[in-house]
Amino acid sequence: MSFFLLLLPSLVNSLVYPVVPGVQIMCNRVYGNYRYNTVMFGRPLQIGDTITWNGTVSTTANPAEVNHNLKFTTWGGPTLLQVPFHMRQDVPRQVSIFNNLVYNAVWFRALYGPPIFQLGQPFQVSVKLTANTFEVYSRGALVFTFPIRSKADDLRAFHFTGAATINWIEIQCANPPPGTVTRRPGRPGNGNGNGNGNGNGHGGHGGHGGHSHGSSSESCEH
Questions:
Q1: Residue-range domain boundaries for the chain
Q2: Where is composition skewed (Gly residues) in this entry (predicted)?
Q3: What does pTM read for this prediction?
Q4: 196: left (phi over 0), alpha (psi -120 to 50) or beta
């Protein structure tokens, strides 16, 4: 059993959403609707690694419903209390919100960017970790660059929430560990995860277009 799986009992208490038992992503693709679940990485995300998720936004997403807001959150540190990258869009509003959280307590100033998700439309979004930034791609096109503003060298998990269905999640490793090969396992019969979670508050709205700065902190996960 891997080191990360041994940590699961203590990690569950630190997270908003439960860890998916027995599921890890490392240089491979997993199929299933993993909304409202925390998915562990097989090893901490490294510079050059890219995580991609593919799915479809609901036709009934409502920005007034907190649990409809589309959110992608990375978790780091031994107890998963750090959030070096968080992305949110309250579809159909045409602005994305980016932020980071330190030790489950302090949100930095929000940054605003272009829309990434559209009501009722399929999506394929990627986040690539570089030495100084998180690069956000929509179907292969770079749409936003978020500066690393807190510790990001120990990313171990992520979760995705909101009014959408996830088809699959994949990590493309820049330097796969010896003996590992990027593979795409077969599709399970019924997928995994569930879509019954609830939101946990949300931060400021009203982007300024482009890659602009917000004037207030966002506290949309805790």
A1: 3-217
A2: 188-209
A3: 0.75
A4: alpha
